[in-house]
Design brief:
Layout: E1 4-7, E2 10-13, E3 18-24, H1 28-31, E4 34-39, E5 46-51, E6 57-59, E7 67-72, E8 77-82, E9 91-97, E10 108-113
Parallel strand pairs: 2-10
Antiparallel strand pairs: 1-3, 3-8, 4-5, 4-9, 5-6, 7-8, 9-10
């Protein structure tokens, strides 16, 4: 059974940076278009960024220009570099395919203090 493992979250001051990493068993990441998602209490999970198998990327408006999604197919990982963090970026961050058809992992908490 495929399982995503997200890591790299933490507490950072506004304006700081974090780099999130997502790993999975098997070749699911290298075989599929992937996305990073985030969720805050009481709100639906929302897409943050996506990356196709060929490396084409899309970003949600609030993070465009600040976040960068990338993938390392050899290592079967997908990364999210987050710069110029804002308090409103505080959330639990998850990765999944763009179809969200794999069981969700536990996510990684990102907290941005003002």
């Amino acid at each position: 059974q495929v399982q995503f493992v997200e890591s790299g979250g933490g507490l950072v001051q506004a304006g700081g940076s974090l780099r999130l990493s997502c790993a999975a068993s098997g070749s699911i990441i290298s075989d599929r278009a992937m996305g990073w998602y985030r969720q805050t209490p009481g709100k639906q999970r929302e897409v943050v960024a996506t990356i196709s198998r060929r490396g084409a990327t899309t970003y949600a408006g609030p993070v465009k220009g600040r976040f960068t999604i990338s993938r390392d197919n050899a290592k079967n990982t997908v990364l999210l570099q987050m710069n110029s963090l804002k308090p409103e970026d505080t959330a639990v961050y998850y990765c999944n395919t763009v179809f969200r058809d794999i069981d969700w992992g536990r996510g990684t908490q990102v907290t941005v203090s003002s």
